[in-house]
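User: Modeling request: complex.
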Amino acid sequence: MTPDMRTADTIDRYLLRFRLALTGVKDKEELVSEIRSHIVERLEDHTRPIDEIVENTLAGLGTPEVLATRYRTEGLLERASTTMSPLLLLRATMRWAMTGIRGFFAFWVLFLGYFMAAGFYVSAALKPFLSDRLGFWVGPHGFGIMLRPLGGGDTEILGMWFAPVTLALGCLCIIGTTKFVRWLISKRRRTNTATATA
Amino acid sequence: MALPQPAPVPDNWSAQLRKGSLDLAILASLWKKPLYGLEVLRSLEDGSDLSVAEGTVYPILNRLRVEGLLESEWVDSGTGHPRKYYKLTDAGRRRVKEMSRAWAEFSDKLNAILKSIGMKG
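Assistant: Request completed. Predicted assembly structure:
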């Protein structure tokens, strides 16, 4: 295999892996073409050995999988900043969490907010079956929502309003968490979303 | 008794600063004329100390295009392969002006603080 063939083979293998890693990303072929164009452009520098140029260029781009992840992260966060879909937000923040502490924070805020909302919804659904145990209890040792402490002596104050109130609290958790995380994402976009600089 | 050593600047502080300004730098590099990806990179390297990894710029260019701040067009380079040129849209030009203003305001305030403590002449 000649040096030129070896170079072409290295580039082809890189682009093939990049194409595979981009599966499901919009405008995939155009992104691959742009990276190919970039590599070819770098090869026009005739002052250095071609092997060295290819090696430096591919190192600058990152592995095909890392490069594809950057495109995915940028795209996901773009959509997530305007969505109300909990699933899309979870996917976007999970990916963001892998790139830094702020993403990690956003993911946990989202996870805890939705987890609390799920708790409220489950309580509302179980109320008809556990009417004497589930409620908003007030007693000598404070107050609490959900299951009555075994100690007794507490009074349930919501009665038939327990289910509507917990449903409303669940909705508030979902909306509040979604809006807050969307704000975090849009803040990140405003101050730039680069995942790495040299 | 040994004097306390000054606290070093955290490694990631300057990196975070660069990251935070990268959108503006990329958009601003396209202010005068359309450029393709490698030209944007060279413009950042030549016009500033913003040394940016190649794999960082292309995803950002793509996102800015999706956001409607940039338009792209493939143009034959005359050397046998096409290049993807990016240019600012009207929304992109407005964004550059807004970001430049915000950057200048922030920079002025920070400089004022540094001047007040004698860190800047």
